[in-house]
Amino acid sequence: MRRAVLGFASFLVSAAPALAQSAYVAGGIGADIFRPARVEARGADDLTLGGEAVALSVRVGTAVTDRWGVELELTRAGETEREMRRGVPIPVLTGRAIEAGVLLIPELAVPLFESTVRLARRHTTLDAVAWVAQTISGRVDLVYLGGVAFIRSTGEMEFEIRRRPDAAPIVVPPRTRTTTYDAGPVAGVEARVALTGRTTLIPGLRLHGVGGDTAGAWLLRPSVAVGWRF
């Protein structure tokens, strides 16, 4: 995987001098919309974490011909967070007894225990793609792209039990953090609108296939970027 990324980057660097007029860089902002596979059941909480977060990106690329080219884009998103709470009554012996005829029966109290699960997840991706441009007008190109995305996913989970009325929380287990690495397909479409001779506005949409520690997920990224052509 690392060799493939380094080889792709070396190609961009070596191609830049020969195609200096076609090389470009861009920076953008967008959304990270994560939708994992999930299972729903009555009375059970869904511990999957889908959601939205802000994402920042930077890209570098070059045209190989007047119609197609190659590109690397690095995107880092904010954390997607979720918190779930549930109260559970649990019978507990009080140490006192009540008289029932000739028998002494331990008295039961039913305190309320509240469980809290906190989840957080973040994605960082490196997209290596090839693109094909279709000219719409003198200032607008429609671009179709596809390739492979290298994905780093980090997740945190914290589980806490607190007795009601308020008491010190019981934390079991402590916070856990996982990091997974994966590679999957990426495809997208974007428009390149010339603002000046060298500046370009780039609204677009990309769809990533994510595996890793999930049973399968979609990562949808709408974004807008501003590019500079050398």
What's a quick, concise take on this entry?
By secondary structure, this protein is mainly beta. Helix content is 7%, strand content 69%.
Keywords:
single chain, 230 residues, Porin, two-stranded antiparallel ribbon, 1 helix, 7% helix, 69% strand
Care to describe what's here?
- The chain is mainly β.
- The chain has a single domain, classed as Porin.
- Helix content is 7%, strand content 69%.
- It is built from one helix and twelve strands, in the order αββββββββββββ.
- The strands form two sheets. It has an eight-stranded antiparallel barrel. The protein has a two-stranded antiparallel sheet with strand order 5-6.
- A hairpin with a 2-residue loop joins β5 (92-100) and β6 (103-109).
- It is elongated and about 70 Å long.
- It starts with a helix and ends with a strand.
